[in-house]
Amino acid sequence: MARFITRNWMWMVMAATVAVAGPLLARTSGEGGRQRSLDTLTEIMDLVQKQTPEPPPSKQLAHATIQGMLHTLDPHSNYMDESEFRLLREEQKGSFFGIGAIIQQHDQGIAIISPMKGGPAERVGIRSGDIIKEIDGTNTEGMSSNAALQKLRGEKGTLVELAVRRAGLADLMRFSIPRAEVPTNSVYHSFMLDADTGFIQIKDFGETTSDEFEKAVASLKKQGMKRLVLDLRFNGGGVLDAAIGICRQLLGPDQLIVSQKGRDGRDESQTRTSKGAQLDPFPLVVLINRLSASASEIVTGAVQDHDRGVVVGQTSWGKGLVQSLLPINRSRGLALTTARYYTPSGRSIQRDYTHGLDDYYNPEDEKDTKPQGPAFKTDLGRTVYGGGGINPDYSLPVAKVNEFMATFRFRHSAFFRFAVHEKEHFGVRPGQHADDAVMARFRAWAQEQSLTISDQDWEANAEAMREQISIEMQNVAFGIEAGFKIQCEKDPAILKALEVMPEAEGLLRKKQLIARGASTTVAALR
């Protein structure tokens, strides 16, 4: 979704092109009309290049023209140039060639958050906290994480030259790193929350997601998992088949997963689980938020409609449009909306986009309200709504932005930088939380860095700072998952999931009774 948000400039370019070409293309018919429209479009593009004070490159103008045309159809049809198409295919396939490190843009530059275990970066000595100052001789000042990512990726075996700033050293450190295959696992975290509860976070849906999920569930069962929290927050979707693969592992036999309808409701197709499928007997809670979209909503909608589990969080994005990926000359791609999808109860969860892209991509998030569409019934008779995303069974308030914490965390990277300093000078133990001694060192360090914290701000934000410092210390010392486990301890959505797990257990018991043909007993339980 970020791809569209970052391209608002296109509409300024398109004011001179699509505003004329779009209506012509829509109103004319036949080869003659199409040719006249193309001639008009070509003429306008020529005028733009000849008459504007700073003419855009032809490639850029063509790209913007195509995007503008597609966005008159719907918000999700999208044209991808060579680099965008390559990145998409890499993400879908689940691997790419790079240095094997998680990076993030900080005020000091592109920071190494965590080198992947056994990856090329770790093997040559790259550490958490290193700041990449140059990539192949190009200064990274002002460079975004995405731009750096594209430079770090390349052909297998080729070298990427990095100049790195490391705390405590006056000179830059230089590394030659051979690019190697790096897996981009969709299952980002998989561990036990407690003795009985497993946790799986899926960050996106790619070609390997279903297999990854199956392996994660099997591993957690060996560790004693009897119930599962599935985290789909911030998951913007991906490959439809991956979502179907997850549903086939969660649902019972011969259950509808999703249906698709083409233009004007024609060409309907349905996807179901196999008749021989078995309902896996573990209670389930699914976590979603406003950025859970598309394939995430297919999984969540199927779980909710079939009463397979309980949904916790905020109303999801509301993307019910199906894009078919159409390659162009093998190096570029067109993601074209070809159908709408519907949940098993018949819900279309597509949110209205007729009031403009700004309204669609920047919805009012302060209030989490129910979709205003028609009501539907789940298998067990619960009421759910269509048109506007998946509404959770238990809605949580949207977290408000704490300006002090946001400034220290993102603008100054203070907690991350201090964690690197703490690791280098005092060491970090597995599972360690920031105690009073660590907090005292942090305040002194912040003062040395000219990051003054007033007594009032310190008192108001002490616990939030303590938690974030604890997370960052684990991140830099033991990897992202170690820090994430600390974060889970106070995550309101996870705490709510554990609280409502008995309800998920009750739903599962009813499903199991139905599977045994005990419909009269289920009626009595209602």
Report the sheet with the most strands, covering strand number, pairing sense and barrel closure.
6 strands, antiparallel
| Strand content bin | 15-25%
* Helix vs. strand class: alpha+beta
**How many independent structural domains?**
4
Number of strands: 21
N- and C-termini, Cα separation: 41 Å
* Name of the top-level CATH class of the largest domain: Alpha Beta
Features:
single chain, 526 residues, alpha+beta, Pdz3 Domain, 2-enoyl-CoA Hydratase, Chain A, domain 1, six-stranded antiparallel β-sheet, six-stranded mixed β-sheet, 19 helices, disordered N terminus
Structure description:
- The model is unreliable at 1-28 and 519-523 (pLDDT under 50).
- This protein has 4 domains: 2-72; 95-183, PDZ domain (Pdz3 Domain), CATH 2.30.42; 187-395, 2-enoyl-CoA Hydratase, Chain A, domain 1 (Alpha-Beta Complex); 403-488, no CATH class.
- Strand 7 (159-165) and strand 8 (173-178) form a beta hairpin.
- Strands 3, 4, 5, 6, 7 and 8 form a 6-stranded antiparallel sheet that branches. The protein has a 6-stranded mixed sheet with strand order 10-11-12-15-16-21.
- Helix 3 (18-27) packs antiparallel against helix 4 (30-51), helix 14 (414-426) crosses helix 15 (436-448) and helix 16 packs across helix 17 (480-488).
- It is of the alpha+beta class and 526 residues long.
- It has 19 helices and 21 strands.
